[in-house]
Amino acid sequence: MVVEGQQSTHELVIITGMSGAGKTVAIQSFEDLGYYCIDNLPPALLTTFLTLLRDSGKNSTRIAAVMDMRGGNFFDALIGALDHILKEGDIVARILFLDADDATLVRRYKETRRAHPLAVNGLPLDGIKQERALLSVVKGRANFVYNTSNMKPKQLREKIVKEFASDADTIFTVNIMSFGFKHGMPIDADLVFDVRFLKNPYYVEELRPKTGLQTEVSSYVLALEDTQILIQKLTDLFDFMIPLYRQEGKSQLVIAFGCTGGQHRSVTLAEFFGAYLAGKENTVITHRDINRRKE
Question: CA Rg, the chain, in Å?
Fold first, then answer.
């Protein structure tokens, strides 16, 4: 719980609530915000974990931990841990309680064909009612209560970001990758651009041993008329698409440029668009195959 005027170097968000109310989406959202995330942390181990955190010497840590009925002895252990945190006073702890109406929870259990953890061999509604009664006191201690009955996952993410993101949080990253087709397609790319139609510096003897990180190669590739046309078209495309990806709630976008070996053309274009987007987005450049020339 938050105490007015309390100074702390650590922040803890406890995510709890009804099973099926969206705790998985919530913990993923906190992970995107840069929190150190723990799923299904037994409440009895919370004080031990926080002691280890204090002993680590870290100046500032943000932690999000999911705690639910799977942890066993839930109520007494969680309340006891919260009281201990308040007494110590060096960690700001907040509870996010996720709730939903009974009909919505029953429907979600039927859609996923999962059994309720408190009614493995019974009706989901029986488990829901039992869980709601057990969590009533914890809900009363919560700083935030979100009813997700009418929320889509995207809306829950947006609500968490609005409430818990700091000005320093970067929740959207554009990863730009170069690769060589002869080493296989990247399986994690969202957008792949095949630039093998551009003239290949490999066939220029003095450029062959170099890569697109070197001026001689990048100047050669960028001077091509076809490259300039490609840059113009992709610049327009990225300016249109990337804000929409961010608006849709994606935490990252992977754009891959591929040439034959991943040495020259793809590296040049990855570097070019990495520099172009750096002023607009948090951008990371990776050259997957640049050191695989001999393979």
Answer: 25
Sign of torsion, CA 211 215 221 222? positive
Q: Assess contact for 84 and 3: CB atoms under 8 A.
A: no
What is the per-residue pLDDT across 168-222, written as a single tens digit (0 to 9) for each? 555 688 999 999 999 999 998 999 999 999 999 999 999 999 999 999 999 999 9
**Using an 8 Å Cβ cutoff, are 287 and 262 in contact?**
yes
| Residue 170 pLDDT | 52
Give 4's pLDDT tier (boundaries 50, 70, 90). Answer: very low
pLDDT band at 9 (very low <50, low <70, confident <90, very high): low
Q: Distances in Å between the alpha carbon of 208 and those of 5, 204, 228, 245, 258?
A: 63, 6, 22, 37, 17
Gap between the Cα atoms of 272 and 212, Å rounded: 10
252/28 Cα distance (integer angstroms): 13
Distance CA(68)–CA(20), nearest Å, equals 11
Inter-CA distances, 109 with 21, 102, 112, 128, 182, Å: 10, 11, 5, 10, 45
pLDDT score of 2 more than 60:
no
Q: Which is it for strands 282-287 and 191-194: parallel, antiparallel or unpaired?
A: unpaired
CA distance 278 to 275: 5
Contact 90, 55 (CB under 8 A): no
Structure tokens at 225: 């008329």
Full-model pTM? 0.60
Alpha-carbon distance of 174 to 213, in angstroms, equals 20
Q: Give the integer Cα–Cα distance in Å for 41 and 78.
A: 11
Going 173 to 176 to 181 to 182, the CA torsion angle's sign is: negative
Helix (H, G, I), strand (E, B) or coil at 238: helix
**Res. 70 pLDDT band, cuts 50 70 90:** low
